[in-house]
Amino acid sequence: MNNKKTIFSGIQPSGALTLGSYLGAIKNWVEMSKNYNCYYCIVDMHAITVRHTPAELRRRTLEQLAQYIACGLDPEKNTIFIQSHVSAHAELCWVLSCYAMFGELSRMTQFKDKSAKNVDNINAGLFTYPVLMAADILLYNADLVPVGSDQKQHVELARDIANRFNGVYGDVFTMPEPYIPKVGARIMSLSNPEKKMSKSDEDTGGCVYLMQSPEEIMRNFKRAVTDSETSIRYDAENKPGISNLIQIYSAVSGKTFKEIEEEFAGRGYGDFKAAVGEAVVEMWCPIREEAQRIMKDKAYLEAVYRQGAQRAEYVAGKTLRKVYKKLGFVAR
Ligand code: TYM
């Protein structure tokens, strides 16, 4: 073992990978993988809390694995795995659900949003979703959890659950911290900049997907909703569309908002939208091609997820055994 800190994060294979997940999460995972012990998961068990198509889930899970690798996550240096392959996640989830309170789970904004969207299927899994997420994080004693700002509340809940458990049984779990990027933590929909860009959005014009063709990406950027002014200036409250585009351009190019405002001073919205679209296309082109290439190599993908599950199982199993012992379960 080394003394690097540990990172855990995951993405649901519930839809195609969007620019939101890329800038809010994966881009940082790649940076952080240089200096941390990293566990990057494809959280397929989280993806069944809303009705889904099995064949599509299977395809998306493998596609997401290929995308993780294509984005620059080396499976030799990072533990990349599929959540349902490591049964400790479900087991710890049950234990932690006895230490998570009904009231706190009811206050989760994602639960409230998702139950409003799925009124005919407000199942218990949707409600205990953040407990499974806490299990994901705590099994690996993660110090940091790189996520977009929408997941901050869930990571804070994981801390509360860990604290409660540690309060009873001693120092079992490491206290995780959310790691939210300064720029890119909340990418908004291009068609409705008041709303978060989301892979489950039915209005696909508001989303940009990693596997889309350059033409489709450019078209969505060119149609991005802006405002009736003409100045390219960051003002999230009054100019949400332009501010979202500035945020995207900044996250992609590394330029500050001020540098971007200066670069585009006196130029029109059309020019700016095209420039942001081109920057995204350029960033993603090699990644998309690499993901397509890896997708075809089923044997390689299988070797990667098997190795990942083995490594993850070893660490997760140790934590679970410790938890079971503390609880007074008789050892097998
Ligand atoms: P998910 O699958 O909805 O999103 C994956 C990651 O992408 C970030 N993200 C965004 N960031 C910026 N702007 C956006 N528009 C945007 N949309 C998504 C999310 O914040 C997230 O980091 N519950 C999690 C998955 C999960 C997880 C975990 C994460 C399960 N277990 C343990 C961390 C640790 C989720 O639904 O993310």
What does it look like?
- There is one protein chain.
- A 3-stranded parallel β-sheet has the order 1-2-3.
- Helix 3 (88-97) packs across helix 6 and helix 3 runs parallel beside helix 12 (298-327).
- It folds into 2 domains: 6-180 and 298-327, HUPs (Rossmann fold), CATH 3.40.50.620; 204-292, Tyrosyl-Transfer RNA Synthetase.
- Helix content is 53%, strand content 7%.
- The chain is mainly α and 332 residues long.
- It contains 12 helices and 5 strands.
- Bound molecules: tryptophanyl-5'AMP.
- Tryptophanyl-5'AMP binds at residues 8-12, 20-21, 23-25, 43, 46, 133, 136-137, 145, 147-148, 150-151, 154, 185-187, 196-198.
Break the fold down into its secondary structure elements and pairings:
Blueprint: E1 6-11, H1 19-32, E2 37-42, H2 54-70, E3 79-82, H3 88-97, H4 102-106, H5 109-117, H6 124-139, E4 144-146, H7 152-169, E5 177-179, H8 214-222, H9 240-253, H10 257-263, H11 269-296, H12 298-327
Parallel strand pairs: 1-2, 2-3, 4-5
Helix pairs in contact: 2-11, 3-6, 3-12, 6-7, 8-11, 9-11
Bound molecules: tryptophanyl-5'AMP.
Which superfamily, in CATH terms, is the homologous superfamily of the largest domain? Answer: HUPs
Order of helices and strands: EHEHEHHHHEHEHHHHH
Strand content: 5-15%
Characterize the largest beta sheet: strand count, sense, and whether it forms a barrel: 3 strands, parallel
- Identify the overall geometry: globular
What is the level-2 CATH architecture name of the largest domain? 3-Layer(aba) Sandwich
Bound molecules: tryptophanyl-5'AMP
Count of spatially separate domains: 2
Count of helical regions? 12
Terminal Cα separation, in Å? 27 Å
Structural class estimated from helices and strands:
mainly alpha
The CATH first-level class of the largest domain comes to Alpha Beta
Poorly predicted sequence stretches spanning 5 or more consecutive residues? none
